[in-house]
Amino acid sequence: MYVVQRPTDPALLPFVKAFWYFAGPPMHPRERVLPTGAMQLLVNLHEDELRSSGADGCGVRRVAGAALQGVLLGPVVIDTAQQRTIVGVGFRAGGAFPFFAGPASETSGELAGLDTLWGRDGAALRDRLLSALPRSAPPGPAGALAVLRELEAALLARVAHPLVPDPALAFAVAALERGAAVSAVAERLGITGKRLGHRFGERIGLPPKRFARVRRFQRVLGSITPGVPVDWARIAAERGFCDQAHLIHDFRSLSGLSPSQYRPRSPADRNHVPLPG
Question: Is residue 90 within a helix (H) or strand (E), and if so which, with residue range?
């Protein structure tokens, strides 16, 4: 069962893409998760632990069952059997900033426990969500929505910065998403590249050029239809790469895979790539 809920409080819409709930047996023992340029808040309701490792399976990071996944710098591997019941907040790029006291760059590439970031509120969040589940039967969609409403309330209670959108950042993100050059974005905003970089580090957790690179990678993934032959030279030209070799290099760097090895879990889950047992 996979349930997705948009924020019900309008104040959250500029920052949160969706609240989501997943419950079910794992289809694959492990998955590679690819960078998107945004963060997620994760709460594992199956085990009181979250863990991930590097793309090669080394360097396992373990935290308690509620955590913030900082913006990914590259692919990570997750144990899907461990996460058979999990809920999360999918933030927009820069959207996690209002809910955490420190700059986004502090958690870049990290799986950071909410007990560290939110203190007692973070340590108690998992139990709070479990208490929202029906006790008498496996939860259906209604039970999942009750958990998501509780998660939304918990998020609203942890506002550390005003819930006011940053129009300059929104413009920069949209422009880089379209493939604009970082220098052109800074010039259009009337600020220096250094100041733009500071704002991205504070709110997004990546330098603007790296963010633009990740989003270009995401546009490449969006151009691929699993099972359909791909004209990589055409995609390279359309997405602003110097040539096909440049695309392949970037693809390997951000996914740990060659383009021909890329097999997503499903067309809707293009950032999850199943790995053999």
Answer: strand 85-91
